[in-house]
Amino acid sequence: MRQALEPDPRDNENDPSGGGGGSGGGGQVDPELMRRLAELRLLRAREQAIRSQTEAIEDTRTPGQPLTPEQQEQLAELAREQAETQQQTDAVRQALRRYRSLAQRVGQAGEAMEEARQGLERGISGEPTQEAESRAILRLTEALRMTQRIAQQQQQPSRRIAGSQNQGNRPGQMQANQNSMGMSPAPRSTPRGPGSDQAQLGAGGSGLNRHFGLDPRDINALRQGVREKIPADWQDLIQRYYSTLSRWQQRR
User: Fold this and answer.
1) Is pLDDT at 103 greater than 80 in this prediction?
2) Could you give the angle at which helices 127-169 and 100-121 cross, rounded to 10 degrees?
3) Alpha-carbon gap, residue 198 to 202, rounded angstroms
4) Is the pLDDT of residue 165 over 60?
5) What are the structural domain ranges in the chain?
């Protein structure tokens, strides 16, 4: 995950006229971006499962022979599953439309899913259908990396401000600070601007407050969105994702 979070200009092509969106706010990560990041991970896992099942059906087919009734039923079920996954992917694309390049990448995943759905409905379990499914997985993976990098870049302004504030707080002790830094690594600084303590610690010192700079209102919006907008069977995966991300941030 650390490598995936490293900035890459090619994966952060937000339109300056508004396609980027959410990049301001003094280092706060857009809660909508984090919600959709969790959904993209789950959509990719679902598409990977569809491709695996398509490949399994292809492996059981007898060359030159028509599909068995059981295989026809399996492909029909996969086609329905693919249609549902495509619909959810399109919903994520619309939610991310303020991030133009990111929404475009998610849209490309949806287009590949449509090709796969058509192949499944025609009873094609071989290369054309599997290729479309693989392309959808690739586009979702690219969208995930773009989302992670955009979120990291949204954090950076607060870090730069924190550094400049700490340097300016004690101008008469600059030389002493430099000597101290030469002897041992300086501890990570905390921003001293208005409301920074609340932004850094938040209620109960939650990982989201400390690591994403979200204020309590944004935290509540994020939690409410997770509870209300994401299917119940996704809750555990999403919570595990946030827990993993928080632990990674603490190790940095």
Assistant:
1) yes
2) 160
3) 5
4) no
5) 32-153, 196-252
